[in-house]
């Protein structure tokens, strides 16, 4: 047994400190907000009492509650806004600046890092790979999710059937990477296969393949893993949308003699359009930022790199902060249209 | 459309107007549907199932025969788990240690964002002050900023502090060893807030206005309302976001890789597993059991609290 209890105890002490900090910060904040206002309230009561007693009838009436409203807002928002500024907003701005500097962040190089990005063959292949991912994953995952949601809707054992497909959502990308690496495992043709896919190929009389090492198809085999994870998410959201279609609409269509094919295209699809958009957008963003699967399964070798893995390599392995930052900014630029679209939706919602 | 839900027609209307041929076609339809859905279900389950079976097979069997031969020649052992969790050699995995790291990382990384997001969501929904809507829109937009945008500067914020024009505003944190957990908690908390605030705000803002106004008239202050009225009412939303964040943190690789480092002292399971998959890609007895060690907790959480999780997903979420 190699289990150093002392080392583990240190970690648990650290966890203890963390939890203590949580209690102190959150409890302290609420306490502070409770005590300070009641102190003010007492002061006001005293002044009010004095005013009533007629000590100074000309004194202004005691301050009303309203003006202090923003103070409460400030303190309620303070931790979140502070953390967002320190952890996201300022770093994001700095990343933009870093992307205009050299690898050690010492001198300004203008747009060199960006022209580097679009001139290197390796990086261009990274960009093409990312494009393939973003085109295929949302399309495939959403289609599978939608088909499955429609097929199992109101079928027997529906909740079990849904749980089976939804389960991969809970599995880490690293775990999923290992699961599928095992499916793709390769043994020479003279040996017995241990990977399911090669066993099937051999069973049909084919030659076993190194699925993950032959570009360009290996990217597709990685994409399968992401589809496997995301289809469950798509299925759950779309299934809820399908169930929300008013029963009398479906009923009316059925009375009109609509078959299930027409039902799908004329009733189901138009009704679930908003949910469909949410699913496609969410999966697209997740795919753009995909890192874990590629890193676990091929580590970006064999021409499978994507933007997020290359960004990690440049910034944290090769010490090329500028080029890494430029890749991060490019990733951000790709999602900006989605941000704008979402904000417009939000404002529409709020106005309605 | 004259149909109403109470119409007593379905029994007769359910019979397809086309008669026998249509009935046959309909049955064929449902049969194809069943077959297709079973195929999808099998495709989605088999890979995990194969991994699960393999993790209990002896090393030699895993490496020489496919896991499906288990059913003709069942050999069961717990040695893989023994070895991958507590093994002596450095190459064995030593996952027990990493498992504890994952726990230490996850708990505060779920609690802090929950509390801060709930406070912020309440303020954005029920406290009146100027600029409230703008703050909300900014938080909403931040949801979609890829966390890659924050990694490099946030890391240097920890390791070098803040210096503006040669003046040190904040010294380096200088965290070593176990203290590096603080970095990971900090990073996860920051990255979780936009989604958390958005999800909880959706929920908090839908609480009945009468209830809030009645409490205000009774003289309750905002902290009092938050503690005694809002918190109990939004428990389902807190659960949904909590599960979401738990799965996110437990399964995360990128943030841990950068802020926790790769050592046994602080790195979580995912980092170690990715490392094993890279350096010992053919040691399937370790990879299969190791993967299962990392999967089991999220699966339990997920299966027992699926309802809340689904509700969280349905609130329409995009995580950065």
From TrEMBL, chain A:
GO terms for biological process: transmembrane transport. Pfam families: BPD_transp_1. The chain crosses the membrane at residues 15-40, 70-93, 131-151, 163-183, 220-242, 272-291, 325-343. It is found in: Cell membrane. Signal peptide: none annotated. Residues 127-344 form the ABC transmembrane type-1 domain. SUPFAM superfamilies: MetI-like. Keywords: Cell membrane, Membrane, Transmembrane, Transmembrane helix, Transport. One of its GO terms (cellular component) is plasma membrane. It is a multi-pass membrane protein. InterPro entries: ABC_transporter_permease, MetI-like, MetI-like_sf. CDD domains: TM_PBP2 (cd06261). Its main location: membrane. It comes from the Bacteria. Belongs to the binding-protein-dependent transport system permease family. PANTHER family: ABC TRANSPORTER PERMEASE PROTEIN, OSMOPROTECTIVE COMPOUNDS UPTAKE PERMEASE PROTEIN GGTC. This is Carbohydrate ABC transporter membrane protein 1, CUT1 family. It comes from Micromonospora pattaloongensis.
From TrEMBL, chain B:
It comes from the Bacteria. SUPFAM superfamilies: MetI-like (SSF161098). It is a multi-pass membrane protein. It is found in: Cell membrane. One of its GO terms (biological process) is transmembrane transport. The chain crosses the membrane at residues 33-53, 98-127, 134-158, 182-204, 225-250, 291-310. InterPro entries: MetI-like (IPR000515), MetI-like_sf (IPR035906). Keywords: Cell membrane, Membrane, Transmembrane, Transmembrane helix, Transport. Its main location: membrane. Residues 99-305 form the ABC transmembrane type-1 domain. One of its GO terms (cellular component) is plasma membrane. Belongs to the binding-protein-dependent transport system permease family. PANTHER family: ABC TRANSPORTER PERMEASE PROTEIN MG189-RELATED-RELATED, OSMOPROTECTIVE COMPOUNDS UPTAKE PERMEASE PROTEIN GGTD. This is Carbohydrate ABC transporter membrane protein 2, CUT1 family. It comes from Micromonospora pattaloongensis.
């Amino acid at each position: 047994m190699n289990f150093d209890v002392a080392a583990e105890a240190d970690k648990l002490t650290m966890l203890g400190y963390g939890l203590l900090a949580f209690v102190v910060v959150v409890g302290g904040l609420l306490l502070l907000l409770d005590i300070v206002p009641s102190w003010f309230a007492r002061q006001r009561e005293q002044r009010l009492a004095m005013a009533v007693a007629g000590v100074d009838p000309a004194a202004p009436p005691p301050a009303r509650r309203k003006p202090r409203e923003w103070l409460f807002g400030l303190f309620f928002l303070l931790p979140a806004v502070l953390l967002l500024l320190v952890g996201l907003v300022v770093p994001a701005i700095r990343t933009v600046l870093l992307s205009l500097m050299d690898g050690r962040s010492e001198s300004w190089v203008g747009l060199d890092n960006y022209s580097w990005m679009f001139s290197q063959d390796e990086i261009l292949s990274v960009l093409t790979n990312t494009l393939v991912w973003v085109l295929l994953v949302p399309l495939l995952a959403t289609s599978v999710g939608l088909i499955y949601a429609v097929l199992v809707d109101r079928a027997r054992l529906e909740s079990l059937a849904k749980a089976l497909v939804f389960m991969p959502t809970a599995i880490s990308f690293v775990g999923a990477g290992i699961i599928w690496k095992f499916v793709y495992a390769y043994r020479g043709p003279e040996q017995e296969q241990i990977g399911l896919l090669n066993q099937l190929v051999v069973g049909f009389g084919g030659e076993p393949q190194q699925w993950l090492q032959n570009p360009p198809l290996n990217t597709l085999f990685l994409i399968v893993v992401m589809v496997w994870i995301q289809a469950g998410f798509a299925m759950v959201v779309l299934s809820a949308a399908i169930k929300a279609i008013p029963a009398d609409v479906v009923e009316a269509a059925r009375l009109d003699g609509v078959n299930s094919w027409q039902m799908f295209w004329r009733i189901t699809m138009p009704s679930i359009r908003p949910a469909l958009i949410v699913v496609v957008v969410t999966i697209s963003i997740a795919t753009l930022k995909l890192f874990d699967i590629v890193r676990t399964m091929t580590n970006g070798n064999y021409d499978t790199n994507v933007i997020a893995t290359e960004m990690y390599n440049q910034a944290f392995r090769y010490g090329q902060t500028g080029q890494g930052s430029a890749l991060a900014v490019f990733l951000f630029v790709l999602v900006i249209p989605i941000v704008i679209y979402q904000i417009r939706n939000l404002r529409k919602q709020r106005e309605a | 459309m004259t149909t109403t839900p109470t119409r007593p027609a379905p029994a007769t209307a359910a019979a397809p107007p086309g008669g026998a041929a249509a009935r046959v076609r309909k049955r064929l339809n449902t049969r194809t549907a069943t077959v297709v859905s079973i195929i999808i279900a099998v495709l989605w389950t088999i890979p995990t199932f194969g991994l699960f079976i393999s993790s209990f097979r002896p090393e030699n069997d895993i490496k020489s025969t496919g896991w499906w031969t288990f059913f003709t020649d069942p050999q069961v052992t717990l040695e893989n788990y023994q070895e991958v969790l507590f093994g002596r050699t450095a190459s064995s995995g030593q996952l027990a240690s990493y498992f504890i790291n994952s726990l230490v990382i996850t708990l505060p990384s779920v609690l802090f964002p929950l509390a801060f997001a709930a406070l912020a969501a309440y303020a954005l929904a029920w406290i009146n002050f100027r600029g409230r809507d703008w703050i909300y829109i900014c938080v909403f937009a931040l949801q979609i900023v890829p966390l890659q945008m924050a990694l490099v500067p946030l890391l240097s914020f920890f390791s070098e502090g803040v210096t503006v024009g040669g003046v040190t505003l904040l010294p380096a944190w200088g965290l070593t060893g176990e203290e590096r957990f603080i970095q990971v908690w900090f990073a996860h908390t920051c990255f979780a807030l936009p989604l958390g605030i958005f999800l909880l705000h959706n929920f908090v803002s839908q609480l009945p206005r009468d209830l809030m106004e009645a409490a205000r008239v009774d003289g309750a202050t905002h902290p009092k309302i938050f503690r005694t009225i809002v918190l109990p009412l939004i428990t389902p939303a807190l659960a949904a976001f909590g599960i979401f964040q738990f799965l996110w943190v437990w399964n995360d690789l990128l943030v841990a890789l950068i802020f926790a480092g790769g050592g046994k002292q602080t790195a979580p399971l995912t980092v170690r597993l990715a490392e094993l998959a890279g350096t010992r890609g053919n040691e399937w007895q370790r990879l299969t059991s190791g993967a299962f060690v990392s999967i089991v907790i999220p699966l339990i959480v997920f299966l027992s609290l699926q309802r809340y999780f689904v509700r969280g997903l349905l609130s329409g979420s995009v995580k950065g």
